[in-house]
Structure formats: structure tokens, C-alpha cells
Amino acid sequence: MISHLSAPEWLIADDPVPYPEALAAMDARVAAIRDGSAAEQVWLLEHPSLYTAGTSARAEDLLNPGAIPVFEAGRGGQYTYHGPGQRVAYVMLDLKARNPDVRCYVHALEEWLIRALDRFNVKGERRADRVGIWVERKAPGGFKREDKIAAIGVRVRRWVTFHGIALNVEPDLSLFSGIVPCGIRDHGVTSLWDLGIHVTMEEVDSALMATFDEVFGPDAAGKMGSGGACDV
User: Fold this and answer.
1) Dihedral (CA of 109, 115, 117, 122) sign
2) Which pTM does this prediction carry?
3) pLDDT category, 61, cuts 50, 70, 90?
4) pLDDT at 4
């Protein structure tokens, strides 16, 4: 039987993964983690351009129907965009072996993104009334605005997680205009490249892998290690 307290397996897809194929692969892996025949996994990938609809998606938030494919995601949340230049991380962890607290898990995903962005001197922030990770920017006229740089959407089945995070590295930001991203109308979206941070996907992967154990490792005090506490 696989030990769920060992380090997760990391898998990086070389080519864009069709969304139905990703859902099927996650379903199979989650079942295997639950029955003890596979280790936890973090799967890093990109998708072809598409919109996904979470369980709270509203029809009126799909602004340009038919522009690109739309898929039912089965995760929480509303509409989001996935596509080339966006790093998606599907995170399949056994919360029963770690910490059976979904709120704590979401907080840990946020912390992971914040720490990874910090590697590029980008200050990612939480907002109590909005999901995802946000950056504060200067707007015309000296005003400030907040743009979303990363989305979070999770599902948990028998205490095993799937879906995860989507970090905008260099996607076509114009395609976000076909939806109301996550149901939030009054704020924009951004990416590392849009902020002037011209990093490669490989550099982003390195940052994600380097900071993962800081939050999810066994010694991650106050975050979400194996059986650890969670400061929320």
C-alpha cells in the first residue's frame, strides 16, 4: 500500500492536455489514492483554450457563447478560462492522512501561490470577499486597481482533492473577456508577463515545486503539512 505521507509525485505535461482527458485522468488517480494503490500527485499542465463552468456558474456570465469550447468542470466556483500560457496545477492530496479540513486546504493553496509569486517579487494577496490571488496595480489618474493573477477551484471526494490552481504566466488575456471570471465584474485579470515579469513556464514550475513543501510538507508548521495545523 502506498504511504500518503510521502512526497507527492510530480507530473509535467509536455503538450496541452484536452480537458475531458484531464478530468478522466484525475478521476482515476483520485480513486487510486483513495484505495491506496497510488501516491498523491501534483500534475502541472496547460490546456487548449477553453472555458470551464463550476457548480455555481451562471448562464449570464458566459458573455460570448460559442467562441471557444465550454466544459462542465465539476469543481466549485463559476466560469474561468484555461489556455496556453497558463500554468494549471491539479493537486491530488489525501486530506484524511494530512488534515481533513477543506477550508484549511484552500487557505494552503492560496499560501502556495503567494509564496511562488514572491519568488518573482510579485506580491500576491488574498481578499476576503473574492476567491483567487490578487495583485494591486496603478491605474490611470494615480488610482489603484486590483487584478486577478491566479484562480483556485477545488473538489474533494472521500477526502481526496482534485482540480486546484491556475496561474496566469503568459496567456491571451483578451479571452477572459468572453466570461465574467469567477462571477467578479469589477476587477480585471493580469499575468506575470502583463506585469513585466518575462519568466518561462519552466521557471514558474521551479518556483511552484520549491515552495510546495513550505506549505504542504511535513514540517510546514502553521500551514498544512502531514497532520499539521492551519492558520486561517
Assistant:
1) positive
2) 0.90
3) confident
4) 47
Task: Supply 68's cell numbers.
Answer: 471557444
Cβ 92 vs Cβ 40: under 8 Å: yes
Distance (Å, whole) CA 177 – CA 24:
28
| Residue 168's pLDDT band (cuts 50, 70, 90) | very high
Closest of 149, 73, 85, 67 to residue 113, by C-alpha: 149
| The pLDDT of residue 223 | 57
Question: How big is the chain, counted in residues?
Answer: 232
Q: Give catalytic residue positions.
A: 182
- Contacts of residue 177, defined as CB under 8 A and 6 or more positions apart, other chains included, come to 63, 64
> How many angstroms separate the Cα of 114 from the Cα of each of 26, 109, 133, 167, 192?
25, 9, 7, 11, 13
SS3 assignment for the chain: CCCCCCCCEEEECCCCCCHHHHHHHHHHHHHHHHHCCCCCEEEEECCCCEEEECCCCCHHHECCCCCCCEEECCCCCCEEEECCCEEEEEEECEHHHHCCCHHHHHHHHHHHHHHHHHCCCCCCEEECCEEEEEEEEECHHHCEEEEEEEEEEEEEECCEEEEEEEEECCCCHHHHHHECHHHCCCCEECCCCCCCCCCCHHHHHHHHHHHHHHHHCCCCCCCCCCCCCCCC
Question: Roughly how many angstroms between the first and final C-alpha of the chain, as a whole number?
Answer: 33
Question: What confidence tens digit (pLDDT) does each residue in 4-59 have?
Answer: 457 899 999 999 999 999 999 999 999 999 999 999 999 999 999 999 988 888 88
Does the pLDDT of residue 1 top 60, yes or no? no
